[in-house]
Amino acid sequence: MLQRIESIKEELKKLNPVNQDDVEKIRIHLLGKKGLVTLLFEDFRNVSKEEKKNLGQVINTLKNEVQEKIDTWKQSLSSNAKRETNIDLTLNEPNQEFGTRHPISLIKNELYETFKKLGFTIYEGPEIEDDWHVFSALNFPEEHPARDMQDTFFIEKNPDILLRTHTSSVQVRSMEREKLPIRVVCPGRVFRNEAISARAHCIFHQIEGLYIDKNVSFADLKQTLLYFAREIFGEETQIRLRPSFFPFTEPSAEMDVSCKLCGGIGCSVCKYTGWLEVLGCGMVDPNVLELNNIDSKVYSGFAFGMGLERIAMLKYQVKDLRLYFENDVRFLNQFKNY
Ligand code: PHE
Questions:
Q1: Domain extent for 75
Q2: DSSP 248-302
């Protein structure tokens, strides 16, 4: 009998249940009706009196030991049970996909690189502005329609606090603070009270440029814009400047680039004109220089401004501006290779 007890003890040491079912099987195997320990108790009845005293103690200790072990297993496995059913540690990790840069960021970075090569630095300013920086310092007459409620989101009236409608306000800030010559590009969000459609949004992004120095001419502006157009739209790109009007530039122009899709022959994208409108520009109006304490007899400058959504639309053939704001991954994933 002592031998059987020893072998049960040995077996007990080797047991290593991994779940509740295993524990139950072990319990039946040792303590069940026909379990090894139960049988020991049955055979104990037939043992001689002298042996009983000693054996009884040994068998009882064994039974307690077994019971204790089973209890601990039950407990530890039940606290692990949940984790075990949910996690399969042998599974491979799912493929982690990298995100993509937003097309507006892509185009912004490209523009930074392009203008950096021409010596421009990035200059940023606040989105919430006053009337002076957005309109007055830029030679907007008092009754100019751009100041109208229809275009501008006002936060407060008298004195006017508003959301900037263009980043030309940042150019004013650069004239206030920086020493001449100034050569900056001003990126940022702008706000206009417009109905949202495929071609317009009430929030969009601009990048505007300003260069002020002695002897800056329209030829410098034209060369700068030609360089920009070829860097962004390709070597073959042609530009065309059409007379236009802005309160802060004189003369003013609008720039078109030749349509890359049809090579200038005419297609649905360029509305059969062969040209795509890209930006507004001009020579800084002497009034603006004087309003910002720059001597217009000594200094001259040029400025230009464009919408990033529009540039990205033309470059990536995006037909609906609203896509930029929806952040649908199916849209964004298409910019993986840029
Ligand atoms: N600020 C003008 C706009 O928002 C763009 C522009 C900038 C035009 C500089 C001329 C010169 O439309």
A1: 2-83
A2: TEEEEEEEEEE-TTTTTS--TTTTTSSEEEEEEEEEEPHHHHHHTT--TTT-EEE
